[in-house]
Amino acid sequence: MTALGTRLPWQSIPALLLCVAALFGLPLIVAEGSAGPTVLVFALIVAGAVFPVTGPSRPAEAAFLFVCVHGAAWLLIAMIAGNEGTATLAYFVLVAAAWLLAWRLVTVLSDIRSSSRQIDALLRLLVPAIFGAWLLILWETITRGAGIPFVLLPPPSAVGLRIAQSWPVLAADVNQTIFKAVVIGYAIGCGTGFAVAVLADRFLFLRRGLMPIGNMVSALPIIGIAPIMVMWFGFDWPSKAAVVVVMTFFPMLVNTVAGLAASGAMERDLMRTYAAGYWQTLAKLRLPAAAPFIFNALKINSTLALIGAIVAEFFGTPVVGMGFRISTEVGRMNVDMVWAEIAVAALAGSIFYGVLALLERAVTFWHPSVRGG
Predict the structure, then answer these.
(1) CA atoms of 169 and 201, how far apart (whole Å)
(2) CATH topology of domain 157-370
(3) Per-domain boundaries in the chain
(4) pTM, whole model, 2 decimals?
């Protein structure tokens, strides 16, 4: 008994108690058919909960837990398919038990240390992937089990099906919003912000005059800017790109100016002893020192640009675009299409941000913040 108590992880104890509680609330769904899937769900959860008692290695425990918790989750989702809204309290109790073991799985994976860089990289991807997958599993089981109306919150499987069926429409929206408005506006906004920051660093009057205005413009509401840009540049993508320019210009300006002032006095004195001019010091000392600040602005702007372009499309656009699609489909109660657009926007934003983060690590590999991990 003592060995059981010392080896059983704390997540296993409430998971086993929840299994016992679920036994008193059977069946899992009203009008349940064969008892085979229910027995198998109980067996998988109990097996995953007590397996650590055998003293396995971390990788073996993680592999066993992975099979048990995801097998149980798959069975629970399969049982409720076609029986939406008929889940009993015992069904949700077993979902909670499986989630506790998934928590244990993520904990075990996070504790694994390997001498192989490839395995470490795989673990860094696997942990957030399992974490995100269980958010979707909980979303799916709760919405289907409780019979939440489709117009309020569709299950993720319905959103995935809508993405697969509406791929041509989504691709056209991505092309209009991201590849035209966001990319072009982002390049212009960040490029001009960087150039003006260098000029502001060179000329004191420009820095003292422009920076307070920059802080004020950064506080302007996009809801007020977007319709003005539509009046100036028309309904097509140039007005949305203009909104993105306004939103990305000043974050780049402020961060770059701060970064150019980040180099130390000793380094600048050393450059002066070498008779280096302003532009030589800028290229060989101050810009490399400002690189972390510049990449920070690029990452902040990657999300601001996407938000700005989508919101701007609410105020007038041709019959294509992510913001246009969201505003029209929500009026038609096609909520799955709205969620499909949101999912595609989130995925595109994450990829954009991830590419910038990888580029930052490649360019600023020498910086202590990157070398430290």
Answers:
(1) 46
(2) MetI-like fold (1.10.3720)
(3) 11-148, 157-370
(4) 0.82
